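Quick one:
INPUT:
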């Protein structure tokens, strides 16, 4: 900000628009006590643990000139979860036992119709959960005393998400990139922060994504051809010489081929997701602010491998630390540019909903 910039105008450059000031040494006591209390309470404390985690992460995240504040509570998340479980448990019990009873009574057609209906309902609820989780997090996030949120209930978004899931399925996945971008835009397009609505962009949905997405389809075919070509010699040798060592080598080759495929497929998928995130975040604006996300494929690879190493080396206890890693990763790679007129910044007029994240928690949506 230079001398000509008004006092009530704050300019965030790409280098310092959003900054994370957290340290793992500070977060360690929170993670350890959360883990202990979750174990002691047989998992019930996890809602309050999530609140403690977010309060720390938000308070260590500076957006332009002031740090964020998390205003959610563990109690509202716990109550939201109980409400969702009261709805889900009867549905799951019917799915488990009711359909079998109908089949045993010769009502196979009716059971099939109900099963399809239940599957569609789960797809619908998954979309609703994702929408309401985002709405809740924005409504409990404060900056300069201003919060975000949405007055939209998410019902139309859930229907759109279900339809796009079906389209992606019937097209053998080829329209998945289109569906992902469209749903991102629909979700964020209904959100706001203070007096400003998020603008998620309206350019070509799949521009820049198709090339890397097609690599996901090509990987199994190319890998099968490569393994077949390299393994033909081993197969012929094993057929002419049934030596146990040759057979062991053949099994080892097969095992390495499977591991290699999953590693390569994961890498290609991360390469696609890295481009997806750079595209959808880079198209977003909020008032006079524009955003960018600069994480490359290898950044995502380091994040995932670090998570695996952390969980394995700590015998699973490191899972309580993943929220910190994910949040700091997103903040470090998020870039913000533009100006905020503090004089024009007013409180959001959206309702503060009390449904929390019970539905999202039931579907295990979101790590933050």
């Amino acid at each position: 900000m230079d001398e000509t910039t008004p006092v009530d105008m704050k300019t965030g450059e790409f280098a310092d628009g959003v900054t994370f000031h957290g340290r793992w040494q500070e977060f360690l006591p929170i993670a350890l006590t959360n883990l202990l209390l979750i174990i002691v309470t047989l998992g019930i404390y996890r809602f309050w643990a999530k609140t403690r985690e977010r309060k720390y992460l938000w308070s260590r995240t500076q957006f332009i000139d002031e740090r964020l504040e998390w205003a959610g509570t563990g109690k509202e998340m716990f109550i939201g979860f109980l409400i969702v479980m009261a709805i889900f448990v009867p549905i799951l019990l019917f799915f488990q036992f009711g359909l079998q009873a109908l089949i045993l009574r010769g009502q196979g057609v009716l059971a099939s119709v109900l099963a399809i209906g239940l599957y569609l309902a789960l797809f619908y609820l998954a979309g609703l959960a994702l929408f309401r989780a985002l709405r809740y997090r924005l409504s409990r996030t404060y900056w300069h005393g201003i919060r975000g949120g949405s007055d939209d209930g998410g019902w139309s978004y859930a229907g759109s998400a279900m339809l796009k899931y079906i389209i992606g399925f019937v097209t053998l996945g080829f329209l998945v990139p289109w569906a992902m971008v469209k749903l991102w835009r629909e979700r964020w397009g209904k959100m706001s922060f203070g007096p400003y609505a998020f603008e998620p962009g309206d350019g070509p949905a799949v521009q820049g994504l198709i090339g890397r997405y097609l690599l996901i389809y090509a990987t199994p075919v190319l890998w099968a051809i490569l393994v077949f070509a390299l393994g033909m010699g081993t197969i012929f040798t094993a057929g002419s010489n049934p030596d146990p060592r040759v057979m062991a080598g053949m099994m080892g080759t097969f095992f390495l081929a499977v591991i290699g495929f999953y590693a390569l497929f994961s890498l290609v998928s991360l390469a696609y997701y890295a481009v997806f995130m750079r595209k959808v975040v880079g198209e977003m604006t909020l008032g006079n602010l524009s955003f960018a996300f600069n994480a490359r494929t290898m950044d995502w690879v380091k994040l995932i491998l670090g998570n695996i190493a952390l969980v394995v080396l700590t015998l699973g206890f490191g899972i309580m630390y993943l929220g910190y890693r994910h949040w700091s990763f997103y903040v470090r790679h998020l870039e913000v540019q533009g100006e905020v007129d503090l004089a024009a910044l007013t409180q959001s007029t959206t309702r503060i909903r009390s449904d929390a994240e019970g539905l999202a928690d039931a579907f295990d949506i979101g790590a933050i």
